[in-house]
Write a structure and sequence with these properties.
Layout: H1 2-17, E1 24-25, E2 34-36, E3 39-41, H2 47-50, H3 52-62, E4 67-68, E5 78-79, E6 99-105, H4 122-134, E7 138-142, H5 153-169, E8 187-192, E9 195-200, E10 207-210, E11 217-222, E12 230-232, E13 254-257, E14 269-274
Parallel strand pairs: 1-4, 5-6, 6-7
Antiparallel strand pairs: 2-3, 8-9, 9-14, 10-13, 11-14, 12-13
């Protein structure tokens, strides 16, 4: 193990000294001796085996601005939940927000597996992406190449589908993050400065109601084609309000009147220009 540890540290030193500035170092890990499905698993490795304290000290000395994940057996700069979506932004035990990255696969395995056909759909992967950004995280999406170093046809079609959606909706993702506004059911918000983005995971019957946005929106449009979205603000105390889409909504709610049919995009996105 001492021989391997010296080799490992030498390889990391080479990576961090021969290729210019490195922004992020992603380490993987093994468990120390532990119980898996009720069966003891022996022979795992941990921080002492890897020499993690010395390793991380060397990394930060060579690349002071680098970000390191949390898989060395010691705390890192960001955490890496794998194969699940956290229910909210990730925080420390004392509530302080943490940088995090959701580690997901295109199908059920990290490496290529010919007989594994558990491909996630384009829509599911895009919902993962939006959900991650809305919770202030980053999405790591793994695609395993075949033994010939190529992506198979399903993987290529899936990546193409993601790319087509991103071609029109990218500004709701790149440079965007969470919003303080609470989205309606089956929706997510992302925000970039004074632009707020409503991602509609499920298409409503004819209207969507947005708490707290009354008086805050200058303009609303679909992101995929730039077409206007009709806005409605109704006083719930108005005796005639029962005849409108905004009926029964609390004060401060902005109502959007939407087409009966959903747009032909995987996840429709509405862009709001907010008052500064």
């Amino acid at each position: 193990m001492a021989v391997y540890r010296e080799y490992l540290h030498g390889q990391v030193r080479e990576l961090l000294t021969r290729y210019g500035r490195i922004d992020s170092l992603w380490l993987d890990f093994s468990y120390r001796d532990h119980i898996h499905d009720g069966v003891p698993v022996w022979g795992g490795k941990g921080a002492a085996d890897w020499g993690s304290a010395d390793l991380l000290a060397m990394v930060r000395n060579l690349q002071p601005g680098i970000l390191i994940n949390d898989r060395s057996g010691l705390p890192g700069d960001f955490v890496t939940p794998e194969q699940y979506q956290p229910s909210g932004p990730m925080t420390r035990d004392d509530g302080v927000p943490m940088l995090w990255e959701a580690c997901q696969t295109l199908k059920g395995s990290w490496g290529y597996h010919r007989d594994n056909r558990d491909f996630k759909s384009v829509g599911m992967l895009l919902r993962m992406l939006v959900d991650t950004v809305s919770k202030d995280g980053n999405l790591l999406l793994n695609v395993g190449p075949t033994g010939r170093g190529e992506f198979d046809a399903v993987a290529l079609d899936t990546l193409h589908g993601i790319g087509e959606w991103m071609r029109r909706q990218a500004r709701a993702i790149h440079g965007a993050g969470p919003s303080a506004y609470v989205p309606p059911p089956d929706c997510r918000y992302t925000q970039r400065g004074d632009r707020l983005y409503l991602h509609l995971f499920a298409w409503p019957f004819d209207a969507v109601h947005l708490p707290g946005l009354a008086g805050r929106v200058v303009h609303a449009q679909f992101l995929h084609d730039g077409s206007d979205v009709e806005r409605e603000l109704t006083d719930p105390d108005d005796q005639h309000a029962y005849a409108t889409s905004a009926a029964g909504q609390p004060k401060g709610t902005l109502t959007l009147n939407l087409p009966t049919r959903a747009p032909d995009v995987e996840i429709p996105v509405i862009e709001f220009f907010l008052k500064s």
